[in-house]
Inverse folding.
């Protein structure tokens, strides 16, 4: 039950953080927002230290470095694949790939799911596709480059998740903190190199700080969940975070939900129940 609750914390944190981060970038370049998000996340992690501790052993540092670089590549590839479009195809490919790989790794390592959990995992994967898909740009042609980029984005995101969960069980939040520092350095350097091209528009700093502070709850929740339960189960529950983002967009921004997204939201809820019972 602890693993399920922590995986749900991860999904909720990532879903809300993505929503806030998206709003923060509406008026300014994403490179202006990312350093703020990352730095605020580091500050939040430092607040976790007295409670969760951190042992920066060589294994923990290696796990954090791997996760950090994978995360940077993942974010860059996500943005690139979404730019190539159509979003209705590339977003689900990335989301499902990012969840299937950790799920498969968990099964290979010996995770065994009950029948209820297995059905729940299948429903969760289908729900991710339904929730992530939109027909807003359905006329945009799909290209081989877009498919490859979205697949690589999913692989990189899964690399981040496997990295932060791959450190020693007694390392505390060291892997997440190291990963965050790596992404902070790289994103800040990227912003500095493009400083003249970023424009004069200022981002919504309050939302950026809120997004970054909550985002690390997602990474930390995923890492702790895998220490209490099966990686296969944790990976599919945490991957349901797009449902929270879509739901917030409906409630706060009054965006219209498409029928398949409503079905996906229902499926996400059912999947969580089945995985919990299993």
């Amino acid at each position: 039950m602890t693993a399920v609750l922590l995986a749900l914390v991860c999904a909720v944190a990532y879903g809300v953080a993505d929503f806030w981060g998206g709003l923060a970038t509406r008026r300014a370049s994403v490179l202006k927002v990312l350093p703020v998000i990352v730095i605020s996340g580091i500050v939040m992690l430092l607040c976790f230290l007295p409670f969760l501790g951190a042992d920066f052993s060589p294994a923990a540092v290696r796990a954090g470095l791997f996760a950090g670089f994978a995360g940077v590549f993942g974010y860059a590839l996500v943005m690139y694949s979404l730019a190539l479009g159509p979003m209705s195809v590339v977003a689900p490919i990335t989301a499902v790939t990012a969840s299937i790989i950790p799920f498969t790794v968990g099964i290979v390592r010996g995770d065994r799911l009950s029948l209820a959990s297995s059905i729940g995992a299948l429903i969760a994967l289908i729900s991710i596709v339904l929730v992530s898909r939109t027909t807003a740009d359905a006329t945009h042609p799909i290209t081989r480059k877009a498919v490859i980029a979205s697949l690589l984005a999913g692989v990189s995101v899964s690399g981040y998740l496997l990295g932060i969960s791959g450190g020693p069980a007694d390392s505390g939040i060291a892997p997440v903190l190291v990963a965050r520092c790596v992404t902070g350095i790289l994103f800040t350097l990227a912003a500095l190199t493009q400083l003249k091209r970023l424009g004069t528009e200022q981002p919504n700093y309050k939302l950026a700080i809120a997004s970054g502070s909550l985002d690390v709850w997602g990474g930390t929740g995923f890492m702790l969940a895998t220490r209490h339960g099966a990686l296969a189960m944790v990976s599919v529950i945490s991957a349901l975070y797009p449902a929270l983002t879509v739901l917030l967009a409906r409630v706060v921004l009054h965006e219209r939900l498409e029928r398949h997204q409503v079905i996906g939201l229902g499926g996400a809820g059912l999947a969580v129940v089945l995985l919990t019972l299993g």
Remarks:
- The chain is about 80% helix and 0% strand.
- The mean pLDDT is 87.
